[in-house]
Design a protein that fits this description.
- The complex is a heterodimer.
- By secondary structure, chain A is an all-beta fold.
- Helices cover 0% and strands 53% of the residues of chain A.
- Chain A has no helices and 11 strands.
- The chains are: A mainly beta, B mainly beta.
- Chains A and B meet through β5 and β10 of A and β4, β5, β9 and β10 of B.
Chain lengths: 116, 107
């Protein structure tokens, strides 16, 4: 069965960095686009970033461009999100998702809290 | 960037009633690339519809999607108790965006 498991969230000070990981299983990871989506407390869903199957194309929301970097390791079936220069408004639950004409599988989410 | 506006913000209905949710785009969505998701507290979103009207695998047929261009609709034919949740539309015809959500609550 398809599984996506995020890790790496936690409490970080403004200006700090954090790296999220998403380990997958149950499908051929390398053929799928993958993405990160977040939900801030009491807010709606916000797409953050996505990456092509071979890792050659990456896209970012304007709100994170220049601060976040998405990457993947197809041998490890893993997706990553390096988050730098974190701000209070980046506080959210971060989900990884598999893209298949929609996000058809999601992880359970990893909470990132940016606070001093 | 295409902005998606969902209405109403909250829909108060009883089980068995029909729910009609709207998603309006600020410009035409290429190929009607709109998806709908259901979100419950403490759970990840679940995809219901993709490409405006194609039901995702395992989704009951009481859920249907329609629309084209700038106006899209999610219809729940007869609300079941487990359908009370927040619903989001997403467009992926351009730079991806989500709508702000519609909450379907028990009246």
């Amino acid at each position: 069965q398809v599984q996506l498991v995020e890790s790496g969230g936690g409490l970080v000070k403004p200006g700090g960095s954090l790296r999220l990981s998403c380990v997958t299983s149950g499908f051929t990871f390398s053929v799928y686009y993958m993405g990160w989506i977040r939900q801030a407390p009491g807010k709606g869903l916000e797409w953050v970033s996505y990456i092509s199957g071979d890792g050659g194309a990456m896209y970012y929301a304007d709100s994170v461009k220049g601060r976040f970097t998405i990457s993947r390791d197809n041998a490890k079936k893993s997706l990553y999100l390096q988050m730098n220069s974190l701000r209070a408004e980046d506080t959210a639950v971060y989900y990884c998702g598999r893209w298949n004409t929609a996000f058809d599988y999601w992880g359970q989410g990893s909470l990132v809290t940016v606070s001093s | 960037e295409i902005v998606l506006t969902q209405s109403p913000g909250t829909l108060s209905l009883s089980p068995g009633e029909r729910a009609t949710l709207s998603c309006r785009a600020s410009q035409s969505v290429r190929n009607n690339y709109v998806a709908w998701y259901q979100k419950k507290p403490g759970q990840p979103p679940r995809v219901l519809i993709h490409a405006a009207s194609s039901r995702a695998t395992g989704i009951p047929d009481r859920f249907s999607g329609s629309g084209s261009g700038t106006d899209f609709t999610l219809t729940i034919a007869s609300l079941e108790p487990e359908d009370f949740a927040v619903y989001y539309c997403q467009q992926y015809g351009g730079s991806w965006t989500f709508g702000q959500g519609t909450k379907v609550e028990i009246k």
